[in-house]
Amino acid sequence: MNDSLEAALKLLPHGPEFRFVDRLLSLTPGQAGVGEYRVRGDEPFLRGHFPGGPIFPGVLLVEAAAQLAGVVAQSDPALPPLSDLKLTAMRAVKILGSAAAGETIRLEARVTGRLGRLVQAQCAASAGDRALLVCELALGGAGE
After folding, report:
1. Are 67 and 21 in contact (CB under 8 A)?
2. Can you tell me the mean pLDDT for 116-142?
3. Domain interval for residue 13
4. Which of 19, 23, 49, 117 is an active site residue?
5. Residue 20 and residue 4: Cα distance in Å, rounded?
6. pLDDT category of residue 139 using cuts at 50, 70 and 90
7. Which parts of 11-106 fold into alpha helices (H)?
8. Helix, strand or coil for residue 78?
9. Domain CATH number, residue 99
10. CA separation for the pair 125, 139 (Å, rounded)
11. Per-residue DSSP letter, 14
């Protein structure tokens, strides 16, 4: 990963236990990004979701998409970063599939609008040729 992509990924405030973007594949600052998360199989939540047939939870697909959307929004060179940026709303969420241990989830996020401290994004997730998620998300944060 090049230095600018790695620096952008460091904008995530999440600790390693709750980070669902391992690496950025591309980033158009403030506009769009593509990232990946590899389902390792040793994540604690997989033990209970579901025993004997673990799959990556759909709600965490939404969280992964929100994390990538946050990285995209926070990397906008024309705007100061928003402190305390969090997922605030979800619309048109469709969980279309799931990923298992060993699979890599590809995440895509495109910022579609900004209004003050609110960011709107369209997001998607896939694994291989399977669509896993499409959604519209809103993120909100405090101003500087």
Report:
1. yes
2. 96
3. 3-142
4. 49
5. 19
6. very high
7. 58-74
8. coil
9. 3.10.129.10
10. 18
11. -
Tally of CA atoms within 13 A in the half-sphere of 58 that contains its CB: 10
pLDDT in tens, 2-24: 777 788 778 788 888 899 999 99
User: Would you give the distance in Å from CA 61 to the centre of its chain?
Assistant: 7
90 closest CA partner among 135, 33, 127, 32: 135
Task: For residues 73 and 51, give the distance between their C-alpha atoms in angstroms, rounded to a whole number.
Answer: 37
Separation of alpha carbons 26 and 85, rounded Å: 21
Counting the structural domains of the chain, the total is 1
Cα separation, 142 vs 144, whole angstroms: 7
52 burial level (CB within 10 Å; 0-12, 13-18, 19+) = exposed
Global model pTM greater than 0.85: yes
Strand ranges inside 4-143, DSSP E: 23-28, 32-38, 83-95, 104-115, 118-127, 130-142
Return mean pLDDT, the chain.
92
Q: Which residue has the tokens 């390792």?
A: 40
49 is catalytic: yes
Q: Which amino acid is at 95?
A: I
